[in-house]
User: Fold this.
Amino acid sequence: MTDHALTIVAWIAIAAVFAGLEILALSSRRRFAGIGGALSRIGGAPVGRLVLALAWMWLGWHVFAR
Amino acid sequence: MRRLALPAGIGIALAVVGSFTTAFTTGSEVVTAVAIAAFVAASLVATRRRPIPGRAPELAGGERTELAKKAPSPGRGVLVWVVAAGVAIAFELSNYFLSPRYAHPTVSYFLSTAAGHQWSRGILFAAWLTLGGYLVGR
Assistant:
């Protein structure tokens, strides 16, 4: 297996973990935080809100502009 | 519903215009900068309207609502999300510094590929704007 294929498999595994956590959150009737709950929790603090805002801006600029 | 109509309309218009642009051009920079400026403006307005933590909004008679008095419950599993995000970021950085780039693709590689068509670029732009709207509206 090439490095390219191995890296893609690793990315798929990471995406599967994220999807699994979200499914776990949905099936636990929100006793376990989903991605929305985690973002709300992190964004509850001013620093967290700033970090999320900067990450959003960087993502858009990186993907669509540069 | 009517409150969402204007931002949704602006978002759709920006996504359509953004779908016609190409990365590394002035057009793409302008559209993305307009979206970021709108996000910053909306965030500032939302921050000014947001009640001060620990202080419930007052009702007409000077009372405070019971709902607002309650502190938000700690979300179980947030640490798991933070760890998972940390692993993803660490993997992203390790790929970024390894070469050749083709052998170690980063998230940018997938997103650039996904944004290669006009329609997919429009969908990705709309998804990015929706995420921004979610962050503002929390």
Observations:
- The helical segments of chain B are 2-19, 26-49, 66-69, 78-97, 107-114, 118-137.
- Residues 67-72 of chain B have pLDDT under 50 and may be disordered.
